[in-house]
Write a structure and sequence with these properties.
With 308 residues, the protein is of the alpha/beta class. Helices cover 22% and strands 23% of the residues. The chain is built from 2 helices and 16 strands.
Amino acid sequence: MVALPAPHPTSLSPVGRGGQVGQAIVLIAIMLTVLVGMTALAIDGSRAYALKRDLQAAVDSAALAAADKLQQSGSYATAEQAATNVFASNLRLYSSPSCSPSYGSPGAAPWTVTCTYPDGTALTQVVRAVGPQGSQFAMSATRSLQLQFARVLSSGPSPVLASSATGNVNNLLYTPTIAALNQAGCGGAPGTAISLSGSGTLNINGDVVSNGSITVSSGALRVAGDAYARCQSSVSGGSTACYPSGASSPCSYPDVLGATRSGFRLTDPNYPAPAVVGSSQSRPGSTVGLSPGTYAVNPSLTANVCYF
C-alpha cells in the first residue's frame, strides 16, 4: 500500500488587487439613485408642464369669461362668479370653493376676492374700475404639484405652480367720442368744460368724457355709452342709452347700458395739435373736417350742423 501525503490546508485570498470585494454593490446603489432621479425628473417634470399648461388655460378662460359677463350683465359680482365657474370647469374641480370676501364691485380701490378649493387650488381676482379706461380683471391662480417618483428623493413641501392673466372691458373707453381735458366747472374753476345749447336732442354714440363739468342749458343730450363728468354725479338734461346700438334700455346682448359716472380724470394723451386755421372755414358739402384749436371766428357752417 502506498501512503499519500496529507493535503495541506489552503487559504483563499481576495480576488484582484487591493481587496475589492463588494465594490459592485456600492456602484449599483449609486446608479440606482441616479436612475430614480432621472425617472422622477422625466415623470414629475412632464406632469408639472402639463399641469402648468392646464392652469394657464384655466386662468385665461376665467379672465375672458369675467370680461364677457360684465359686458352682458353689467354686474361685477356676476362677472366674478362666471370667472370662478369657468376656472373650475377647466380644471375639473367639482367641489364648491370657499371665497373670501364675497363677490362685489370695485370702487376707488380695487375689489379683491380669493376662492380656495378643497385640494388647495386658489383663484384670486383683482377687479378694477378705471373710469374712462374701462374695467380690468386681473386673475392669478396657484396649485400644488403632487410629486410621484420625486417623493422618494425628497420629503420637502410640494412645489406650487402659478399662472396669471388679465381681461379688459373697454367699450370705446380708450377713444371717447367727445373728450374735454378742460377742468372748468370743477374744483372752483369757473365756466364749464362741455356746454350744449339749442333745441332738440343731440345723440352721441360712444362715451363722453370731461375733466370738468357738463352743462345742458337747453335741448337734450343722449349718450349711447357712458358720460364721465369728473365732479358731477348726474348731468341735468342728459341721459344714457345702450351701446353700441343706441337703443333704449333694457339692453339686449351684446349691448351695454351706459351710465353717468363721476370722480374719474382723463389723462392727457398729448397728441400733437395740427396747424390751426386762422379764419372761418366754409362748409364744402355734406362733410367738413375742422382742425382742433382756437379759431378767430366761428366756422361758416349752415344751420342745424354740429361741430366740436
